[in-house]
Sequence to fold (264 residues):
Amino acid sequence: MPELPDVEVFRRRLAHSGLHKSIARVEVPDTTVLHGISRQRFSGALRSRQLTATGRHGKYLYAAIEGGGYLVLHFGMTGYLDPRDRTSPRVSHTRLALDYGDGSQMAYVDSRRLGKATVVDRLDDHVADEDLGPDALELSHADLRDVLRESRGTVKATLMDQSRMAGIGNIYSDEILFQARIGPKRKAAALDDTEVHRLHRQTRRVLGLAIDRKADPERLPDGWLLRHREDGAECPRGNGTVAYFKASGRGAYYCPTCQPASNG
DNA sequence: AGTACCACCTGACGGC
DNA sequence: TGCCGTCAGGTGGTAC
Fold:
């Protein structure tokens, strides 16, 4: 689930119902979610404090902690935030819970345990340590042009490379390329000016609209490829059938007619 | 450098 | 109904 739009939705959720309330208790039922920090230090950094602001860079969600430091959350493949009332039944696979004094709670749920949480002192250190490129929504047209020009790989792999630009994963890379009518196997550096322009415009449009629709696939347009990720499915534009291939172990979908293998 | 493949985990789904 | 293989929107390490 969690690519840039999903994480942005989680950020807004946290900003709406998780800030400016003192954290009475920090629950960490299983420390495998914690990376590079002990349960004691993690809980100690948050207990009796408030979260004062939220931020996001790529697929990472941040929350400033009153008095210093930042809570950092990554959602892996299956993670999400569940703002809840402490009396309502707890969702299974809850890995973290911030108990606020007023009875509300912010739960971090992640069935596959591929997500992670920590606390850091400085955000720019974290971005550097994780080797993250600029956030995909902060990338200017010139930035994207340079990223593509400097890459020797395929355009799909480049969009998904978090060190080049942060936030785009398997699903949204396919969608952006479909909307921009560019074949996923094209070499990034071989795109012409028109294609780079389309790619930049569609990156912003696809991510922006997905955020507006709460990153809920059912609320996204039926004309999007995302709703038709199936080998042999009909192209949403009516241009033949959707094709499938494996790109370094990930399932990739595209329309060979809409997204030609060259710009010839 | 780029790509393929495995590992980390768990759950859902289709075939038998 | 139960078992089994396959796949899943992420990332990191290793081997070509």
